[in-house]
Amino acid sequence: MTTIAVTTWSLEQTAPTDLLPAAAPDGDVRVVRSEEPSPEFSRFLYASVGGDLRWTDRLSWSYARWIEHLERPGVETWVAYDRGTPAGYVEMEAQDDAIVEILYFGLLPAFRGRRIGGHLLSYGTARAWDLADRWAGLTPTKRVWLHTCSKDGEHAMDNYRRRGFKLFDTKVEEEPEVTAPGPWPGAFPV
Asked: Is residue 106 part of a domain?
């Protein structure tokens, strides 16, 4: 099996004032919380956003595993819609010590380059900062963090930094090289 070197960068915000919001894109773009846990919809978002980026870690999850994850207190999915069509999402999870991790963030390939990503990341990060307002028993957020890697979109790191995230760790590891899983052959522009 062939391997590739993958660089992973971890970034954080340590105060709500760190967030530097992007302007809202033109047109009818809305960000809505997916309040009803739906493994089908969450798997669709995961596979559609990450299919060309080699996101594979959740593809083997069972329906029960998706439900278990989505029903955890402090797990939220926020979806950007462009004229009613899902364009991307941000998924976050409350962790110990008043920390919130942005687990997944991205846009479906057809919606990249339309200035939706900065807006969605801004909106999602603001929701990470006020997560405790929606979940009884959670401590107010003291830190929001995420990671991105060299396999992610070419503008990912710039977007995170423009939104006020600061780098706190870098790792390089060898990973098995995997083929982009889809969602189906020929779905992505060349």
From this structure: yes
